[in-house]
Amino acid sequence: MPGGLLLSGLLMHANEEVLASMKPKQDEHQFQLTAQQVKAPNLLAFDLRQYTFTSESVSEGHPDKVCDYIADSILDAHLAKDPHARVACEVLCKGSNVILAGEISSAAGVDYDQIARDAIREVGYTDPTQEFNADGVRIQQFITAQAPEIARGIGDRIDPGGEQGAGDQGIMFGYATDETPELMPLPIALAHRLGQVLARDRHAGVEPWLRPDAKTQVSVLYEGDRPIGVSSILVSTQHSPDVDRNYILEYVTSRLAPRALGDWYSDHILFTVNPAGSFLQGGPSADCGVTGRKIIVDTYGGSARHGGGAFSGKDPSKVDRSAAYFCRYVARQVVLHGLARRVEIQVAYAIGVAKPVSVKVDTFGTGDAREAEEFVRTFDFRPAAIIERLNLLCPIYRKTTNYGHFGKPGQSWEV
Question: Mind listing the domains of the chain with CATH numbers?
């Protein structure tokens, strides 16, 4: 045997033995996996089944998320008074300017200026020395009524079958995997947890130097389609000028990560913290924010496809939002019923038509594809049926804005 092939064979054989010792245990009654420590040299394994997948999350103080939160706050304010309001609200924030735009038809009277300022204040932008602060911003409104043709397509003129039509054409996806208890991909789940714990520490004053803007990123090592360890973590957080960079590093590695990662924490994780150096100016004071620009953060962190439609600021007649929520709900049912370990569902609509153009199911070889498809087709994907089943005409959307629209308890699509 040539020397190169012999060496390769020995390495692969050794690697298989290492992997066998690293495989996580799985309780036969639960989906939860127990993390194993991953030693750095093993991350360069020769087994082609191994790969690293990375997902990111952003805090509520990220410029785009500030816009999403304002938009969903306006949506909830309308739904609280008029459950059948038609809302499509877009927000742009830059410096001391907040621009509200879109199309809203509602019987409710809503103070947009006050709602926007309250949302900004809740996020934590209250420092008058910063250009972007709740009391100092200038708010401009460019909001008109919903276009009559769209209104007729989904309400005033129902489709030929006598049903509420879809609010727009488009494709939506839903996804579920048994690799975490919440049936979410592990990288995005952990990235969200890091951001949530960071935000809790800031709001509680545990670390008074923390400021609202932050991003987190988690890389997970997989064998096949199963996670076996966390390889690296990146955290960039805005901070006050009086904190030492080494202190921030120590906080992230010793106090933030162990709490957020739980069993997935390991001493062998590679940490990168504020790699660009100081992060004093953040949020819309530094960067322009716009609604709908964090669609991968909002969903599955890149582990599943995305139809392109954003969520925030849209009432549930917009299938971009409601059908994506329902696809997630149905995907969860497929996994919970044991029909597949991993599944993705696609649905497509034509504007003004209730019945979907198509529904597709992909189990990625982890279950009975035919049985899963038959099961999915027992669900009613018409917009009115989705809205009723998930109880979507309520002011629930501010709770969805940050740290993912999926995987959080208490939401009707997560049961």
Answer: 27-59+186-282 (3.30.300.10), 63-156 (3.30.300.10), 170-180+302-307+316-410 (3.30.300.10)
